[in-house]
Specification:
By secondary structure, the chain is of the alpha/beta class. It has helices at residues 37-47, 62-68, 72-80, 84-96, 110-115, 118-121, 142-153, 215-219, 232-239, 260-272, 278-287; strands at residues 6-10, 31-32, 35-36, 52-57, 99-103, 126-129, 133-136, 156-162, 172-176, 184-192, 203-211, 245-249, 253-256. 34% of the residues lie in helices and 23% in strands. The strands form 3 sheets. It has a 9-stranded mixed sheet. A two-stranded antiparallel sheet has the order 2-3. It has a two-stranded antiparallel sheet with strand order 7-13. The structure holds uridine 5'-triphosphate. The site of uridine 5'-triphosphate (UTP) has 20 residues, from helix 5.
């Protein structure tokens, strides 16, 4: 069985839910206090044992590339001022991992964005982490949980969370085979953004996947689906005719940073977790009660 060594992070979407901010700045660069969202996601990949990372961007999102590279002028400036702590902060991640980039020329949907990783994957299974979903609070990083499930099944794994009825039409929803029990379930089908009446369960795909390279055979020929977009979920449904696909309930708290409420919740929670900001954030909250 091939090891999961690579991760793909699609971050080429327009982020229309966060306009006007996203006109000039990618939503993946929204800061949770002082760290961009996409840095948390790259760190999750590294903490999960991933060795190579590819981020899919568009031509307007070069600042994501800048964030993961060395800024020599700034490094020299900080060194000349003896700002050792700041210097260490900006050098640590580029020294740890070399992030690769590729472009999605047209925003045709998530399935199309993943297809842009074909050359990078080189026939290996890979982790897929959406650029605006952040997980915290679990004992093991979300992607590491999925890799453990892949190592057990040698199959594609869809990380899931349980959503209320009011939200099923916003997600890809999984239908486990009858009699499947527990957190790791063999799937019968998946459906993208179903109406509540047509939703087979409340198990929503939550922005984390392990995919076998066979997915590319289906993405290459995938036609447009929900919302006129090339949907990854539709290609996964076709993959199921050839290979088993499982869902794994992710242990952890997820924040959808691409939604305003998710971003605000994450901002408050992440500040409360910081020793240097806890007291200030508590004061801010208490003053408004
Ligand atoms: P979303 O649907 O959340 O992103 O896709 P979006 O389309 O940018 O945002 P809204 O819905 O208009 O507000 C999930 C992830 O997939 C990427 C996005 O950048 C995001 O990280 N994506 C989406 C692409 O890379 N390409 C696409 O064509 C669509």
């Amino acid at each position: 069985m091939q090891k999961v060594r690579k991760a793909v992070i699609p971050a080429a979407g327009f982020g229309t839910r966060f306009l006007p901010f996203t006109k000039a700045v990618p939503k993946e660069m929204l800061p949770l206090v002082d760290i961009p969202t996409i840095e948390y996601i790259v760190r999750e990949a590294i903490e999960s044992g991933i060795e190579e990372v590819l981020i899919i961007i568009n031509k307007e999102k070069e600042c994501i590339r800048t964030h993961f590279g060395h800024n020599v002028v700034l490094e020299e400036f900080l060194a000349s001022k003896n700002k050792t702590k700041e210097l260490e902060i900006i050098k640590e991640l580029p020294n740890k991992i070399k992030v690769e980039f590729t472009y999605q020329e047209e925003q045709l949907g998530l399935g199309h964005a993943v297809l842009c990783a074909y050359e990078f994957a080189k026939g290996e299974p890979f982790a897929l982490l959406l650029g605006d979903d952040v997980y915290v609070g679990n004992k093991m990083p979300a992607t590491k949980q999925l890799i453990a499930a892949y190592n057990q099944t040698a199959s594609s794994i869809l990380g899931t969370l349980e959503v209320p009825d009011s939200d099923v039409s916003k997600y890809g929803i999984c239908k486990p085979l009858p009699n499947e029990k527990g957190t790791l379930l063999k799937l019968e089908s998946v459906v993208e953004k179903p109406k509540l009446e047509e939703a087979p369960s409340n198990l929503a795909i939550g922005g984390r996947y392990i995919l076998t390279p066979a997915i590319f055979d289906y993405l290459k020929t995938q036609t447009r689906g929900a919302g006129g977009e090339i949907q990854l979920t539709d290609a996964i449904l076709r993959l199921m005719e050839k290979e088993a696909v499982y869902s794994l309930a992710i242990d952890g708290r997820r924040y959808d940073i691409g939604s305003k409420k998710g971003f605000l919740e994450a901002t408050v929670d992440f500040a409360l977790k910081r020793a240097d900001l806890y007291a200030d954030m508590r004061d801010i909250i208490n003053e408004r009660k």
